[in-house]
Amino acid sequence: MNVLIAGGGIAGLAIAWRLSRQGITPEIVERGICGRGASWAAAGMLAPGGELAGETDALAKLAHESRALWPGFAAEIEQAADRPVGFRQTGSLIVAESEQQAKAIRDCSNGSGQWLSRDDLLRREPLLSPNLLGGLYFDADAQVDNRAVCEALYTALRANGVIIHENCEVRSIIIAEGEAKALLTDRGTMEAESFVLACGAWMDLISASDFDLPPVRPVKGQMMSYIPPAGIALPDSLLWGDDVYLVPRAGHLLVGATVEDAGFDNSVELRACAKLRHAAARVIPSLPDWQLTEVWAGLRPHTPDDAPVLGATSLSRLYVAGGQFRNGILFAPAVANELAAILQGRKTDIGEAFSPLRFT
What we know:
This protein is α/β, with parallel strands linked by helices. Helix content is about 30%, strand content about 30%.
């Protein structure tokens, strides 16, 4: 079987990697440079605790299952590419700035996580504001260097002989007799036995005559990176405040992220950056004195019900892997396993919760 994957972000790269390890021939078509879209702009958090504290629905189940896959997935990629990807189990802290927030955090946790008092919080993370009232700690949460992961996957795929077409845009799906026959790109027509659309926020820009793709739209997220003054150690944990998260990585503190309905605009705005900095300073008061090193924006793929679309469409031979929204990095190994299984006709544990057909 040969599979043509539209999209070279972490989802497309991971799917191609899993397929190539199972004797299937993948080929990737990427509209830009692999791994340089939403996957590059992400923060690399593998944090079902911080992101979905106490939730038990299908999305939370997918998050926890994929988090459990990450140690093995990271080791596999590192060995294949001979380069590190920065997997670390750091834990997450959801901090409370008021009694109302403290109660809300505890109520939504459903008994999961460990509540830390203000004193416990400051002993664990001395940089935090003494005005915080406490926090909920999830020790299993982790992070990975998302940029390093994409580069490692690209290296491993190239070493395995996988063909990757960069700066090649998919424009439409050629359909005949109820089947996807080929993808029309700006370099011509590309045929395969099966097709996977893993092109993130750009999925719905692909035209398909008399066929509706699942609704996926872009949601803009802006982020910033700081380095502390000499002698100041970064926090150990992922930190979650009110409308902000902070990720310590390789001497930098990543601060994110806005959630904006701005179409395909991925420009950086000073007002949004100032808002992020203000929110982060309520968590770490010294942060305004740190050195700003980078500001960037990315476009997350979002569906109307906040859940991904994974699996077969109503069009024969056409599959999708999209709508991962804020959890594209976290979901990557589970998405890769899911699509590899579906393409080979195997039933999966994920079931119908994320079927693209739910929007038909």
